[in-house]
Amino acid sequence: MTTPLTERAAGRTEGDRPAIRLDGVSKTYGQGRNGLPALDNVSLSVRPGEFVSLLGASGCGKSTLLSLVAGLDRPTAGRIDTQGRKIAMMFQEPALFPWLTVSANVEMALRVQGVAGKERRDRAAEFLEIVHLGGFGAKRPHELSGGMRQRVSLARALAQDADVLLMDEPFGALDAMTRDLLHDELERIWQKRGLSVLFVTHNVREAVRLGDRVVLLSSRPGRVAEEFPVGIDRPRVIDSPRVATLAAAITDRLRQEVLRHGR
Length: 263
Ligand code: ADP
Ligand code: MG
Prior knowledge:
The protein contains eight helices and nine strands. Helix 3 packs across helix 4, helix 3 packs parallel to helix 5 and helix 7 crosses helix 8. The N terminus is likely disordered. The structure holds adenosine-5'-diphosphate (ADP) and magnesium ion.
């Protein structure tokens, strides 16, 4: 069942225990001499209600890190603690069932929680309202634009009643204008619902636009290179001078990391 907003708000002040905590996490794919170290000794935490952007060059282990937090794979070393919180994941491709309506796609998340019949349809409609897709429930995914499909994906994530959202370059395939709109939507929903978000991107401005903090991963293997607190008031505009200035500084640092690895 959906936790009322008041309880979620209380959850935000439940002390200093992180919503997500990684302690010395390493991940090597394969065995022995053929082993590929993807992550090396990564320690990182996300506070309840915090929005953390995870930034790094492609291949540095960002998706690996998210799959470990989601419990889809196990670390080779180290510990991950999500305190049994419910976690939802969003990918670059929305992964909707094409033969189901938009509403039925969202209802899938409610069905597994045992929500039946009319209540399930009503709740799906509410989640579609939240992402500003009220009235689109009877459409099929192919009838929607890429940005709208990502909204459906977000509605489905919310319907899972998760309070931790893991996002893997979710807006990477969208045009700039659609992406900016979805940044606004995500920021609004994140604040209203008190979600804890770990948002992966290789887009520096996007990381600064959204994050309370930007964590920069180095490449091969991925390590935390540096963390940047983002002290810019919200709501933010991706093209504002303050976002651009911090993004430029982080880009310099990212460039050093990439050069260090000879690419
Ligand atoms: P990113 O998301 O930052 O682009 P990934 O986490 O996808 O990086 O990949 C990190 C490294 O681990 C890459 O070198 C990639 O080729 C490798 N890798 C990722 N998944 C697997 C896998 N299932 N098996 C073997 N190697 C993998
Ligand atoms: Mg990836």
